[in-house]
Write a structure and sequence with these properties.
36% of the residues lie in helices and 20% in strands. The chain has 477 residues and is of the alpha/beta class. Helix 12 runs antiparallel to helix 13 and helix 17 crosses helix 18.
Length: 477
């Protein structure tokens, strides 16, 4: 599909978040007749309607004459509109799939679109993709992180610089939702970092969730996975060019850690491997971030980036907001914001980075089983502060697996993220954590749960935590 293929065709855009609105703009520019549908009328509708789109409002059926539906990743396959499209045989794609099909739009003869280096996984996607972006830029390439992070892919792939693609290579984050609606994406190399119990409510089963993740590998000539994650490693095992990363000594076809050094034995000319950088040079803590760095390095090396540039890019990486960020130290206690740890798998990786922790946890567990997490981390808990709607589930698990650990529950759970109640809740949470922590401990916000019961989103939760810590420090700590 290119711009000429879309001219005059009728495309329905379902969901007008950031990616949906971007898709609508690109479709209008390509000459398509664009219909817009969403549960409520967002601000983007006015500008899109002025550009020629037609607002349908809430639509439960596909109008006659629609050639293609572009869906928001938030819409489940059983949404009435998408189910109706399936009954009619109308193709449904996500914004990344549309971007893949449009990536060659308006290129001069002989000019190739920028290759994609793609990442998925239950956790670590954003960190790995932004690490990869840093490495690619360190190699002198025009690179950008896009997709499920950063700018929508349809904007990035159609951006031009004097007729040429604006970027040499794309670091692409893809969620399981986006991959479900993708059928032809063929990245130059792809990574599945890990696959843990998450989003089963959307996909219907863990197997369907796993299989959606696996779609990223189907057309990639190089498949990367964490050897320590049995599901992810299993997905790449049968691939023609499997590459795994490990925290141990790397074998052939692996990147790993040798004597404190990150070493590549998958792409190096020397069978003994090539050193990328010292592990201690990484500024983001935790074994999980070493795995993320190795995965980013593997994708970059698959694209031909020299080892020296890989090391320079990783050494310069500073991490993102709400991902294991120290927001303050009060009375010898470090306060760490990992609000992005929205499921048990992510929280477990975060907790493993610190020897003695007062753990702040709770929110919307989405049906996830927390017993394996609590049992695994019980030995490093100095105390736990629980908040959010599902805090009782965590409290019961702690009573079973960590009965001697002091637990404080802070009433909360139905504020819907609005007004001062959320900030007041977090202030009580931080005060309770401070009361449990001793000098040398880490107070860690790694909730293992989504945030929307009390906060607007995980970023709001992280900001409220940082604000409460700063207030605690200003109060004489």
């Amino acid at each position: 599909m290119n711009q000429a293929d879309l001219a005059g065709r009728t495309v329905l855009v379902a969901g007008l978040g950031v990616s949906g609105a971007a898709a609508a703009r690109v479709l209008l520019a390509a000459g398509a007749r664009v219909l817009l549908a969403d549960a409520a009328e967002p601000a983007a509708v006015d500008d899109l309607a002025a550009a020629g789109a037609t607002w349908l409002g809430r639509a439960d059926a596909v109008p006659d004459g629609v050639d293609l539906v572009v869906t928001s990743p938030g819409w489940r396959p059983d949404a009435p509109l998408l189910a109706d499209a399936a009954r009619r045989g109308t193709e449904v794609v996500g914004e990344p799939e549309l971007a893949w099909r449009l990536r060659a739009t308006a290129l001069p003869p002989g000019e190739r679109p920028a290759p994609w280096l793609a990442v998925t996984g239950t956790n670590g996607k954003t960190t790995t993709v932004t690490m990869l972006e840093a490495v690619l830029q360190a190699a002198g390439l025009r690179a950008v992180a896009a997709g499920n992070v950063g700018r929508p892919l349809v904007e990035v792939v159609t951006a031009r610089d004097q007729g040429r693609p604006a970027y040499d290579v794309l670091a692409v984050e893809l969620s399981s939702f986006q991959l479900h609606w993708s059928s032809s994406i063929a990245p130059a190399a792809a990574a599945v970092l890990n696959v843990a119990d998450d989003h089963v409510d959307w996909h219907g089963s863990f197997a369907a969730y796993r299989d959606a993740k696996a779609r990223i590998l189907e057309r990639a000539p190089v498949a990367v996975a964490d050897a320590g994650d049995a599901v992810a490693a299993g997905l790449v095992a049968a691939h023609p060019r499997p590459v795994t990363v490990t925290l141990g000594e790397p074998g052939p076809g692996q990147l790993g850690v040798r004597d404190g050094l990150l070493v590549d034995r998958a792409f190096a000319d020397d069978p003994a491997g090539e050193v990328l950088l010292e592990r201690s040079t990484l500024t983001v803590p935790g074994p999980h971030n070493t795995v993320n760095a190795l995965a980013a390095a593997a994708l970059a090396r698959a694209a031909g980036v020299p080892a020296e540039a890989v090391g320079r890019g990783l050494a310069g990486f500073r991490g993102g907001a709400h991902r294991n960020v120290v927001v303050g130290t009060v009375a010898g206690v470090a306060y760490v914001d990992d609000s992005k740890a929205t499921n048990p798998h992510a929280a477990g990786a975060s907790l493993a980075a610190y020897p003695r922790v007062v753990w702040i946890a709770g929110g919307l567990l989405k049906g996830a089983d927390v017993d394996p997490l609590v049992a695994a981390v019980a030995g490093r808990l100095a105390g736990v502060v629980l908040l959010g709607r599902d805090r009782a589930v965590l409290a019961a698990s702690l009573a079973r697996h960590a009965p001697t650990v002091p637990v404080t529950e802070v009433p909360s759970g139905d504020h819907e993220g609005m007004g001062p109640a959320a900030e007041e809740t977090m202030a009580r949470v931080v005060a309770a954590a401070a009361a449990l922590a001793g000098e040398g401990d880490t107070v860690l916000l790694a909730p293992a749960a989504a945030s929307m019961d009390v906060f607007t989103d995980y970023a709001h939760r992280g900001r409220a935590f940082a604000d409460a810590v700063h207030a605690l420090a200003g109060g004489g700590g």
